[in-house]
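Field log, afternoon session.

UNIT: design team B
ACTIVITY: writing a sequence onto a fixed backbone
BACKBONE:
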């Protein structure tokens, strides 16, 4: 009951915010935006398939989302990086008015990190073997082709729909044959896996952080 009430309040906030014009923090001017994109492009060579990528949005829904992290509120959303034909794409589960189809999204790095809508990004990496990266790609592309939908109820126990941290965790956990399962929190609120659980994991290594403003 406590868990259901917790997420009901979150969903109420998200739906209310999505019906209104989402208030954002004052953004930078065009010159600074161009500089931030250069910063993003300089990070691109550091990225590998299987990297976790995090961003912190500057709107009300993002501020609400990061408040539900377990320990660290640096980021509000996350996805997985895959390299395809020398191009990098971010796969991520996103809901609300930001993604009308509610299906798993595939975006370029620039689009995902968009400094006009986000004020920070972070890239973290688990130590995956080549075989595990291949398994991860297979899992993520399978979800994408199946049109995996966003889980508006944040039910970690269901696999037919997933929220952002759940998608990242379950994809990685499948690649490592369940080795990450002991870190799932089923005994407390928040229930399952939170965004910060992913990068605070003892095996997670920081690749790069960038702040825009």
């Amino acid at each position: 009951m406590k868990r259901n009430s917790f997420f009901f309040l979150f969903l109420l906030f998200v739906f209310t915010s999505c019906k209104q014009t989402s208030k954002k923090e004052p953004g930078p001017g065009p010159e600074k935006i161009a500089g931030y994109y250069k910063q993003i492009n300089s990070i691109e060579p550091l990225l590998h398939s299987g990297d976790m990528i995090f961003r912190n949005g500057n709107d009300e829904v993002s501020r609400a989302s990061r408040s539900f992290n377990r320990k660290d509120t640096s980021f509000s959303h996350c996805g997985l990086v895959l390299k395809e034909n020398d191009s990098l794409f971010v796969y991520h589960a996103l809901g609300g008015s930001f993604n009308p189809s509610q299906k798993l999204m595939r975006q370029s790095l620039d689009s995902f990190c968009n400094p006009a809508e986000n004020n920070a990004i972070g890239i973290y990496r688990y130590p995956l073997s080549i075989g595990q990266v291949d398994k991860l790609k297979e899992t993520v592309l399978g979800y994408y082709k199946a049109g995996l939908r966003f889980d508006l109820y944040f039910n970690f126990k269901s696999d037919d729909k997933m929220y952002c941290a759940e998608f990242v965790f379950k994809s990685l956990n499948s690649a490592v044959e369940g080795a990450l399962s002991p870190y799932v929190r089923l005994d407390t609120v928040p229930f399952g896996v939170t965004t910060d659980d992913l990068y605070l994991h003892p095996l997670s290594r920081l690749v790069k952080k960038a702040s825009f403003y």
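LOG NOTE: Residues 16 and 34 are 33 Å apart (CA to CA).
NEXT ACTIVITY: expression trials, pending approval
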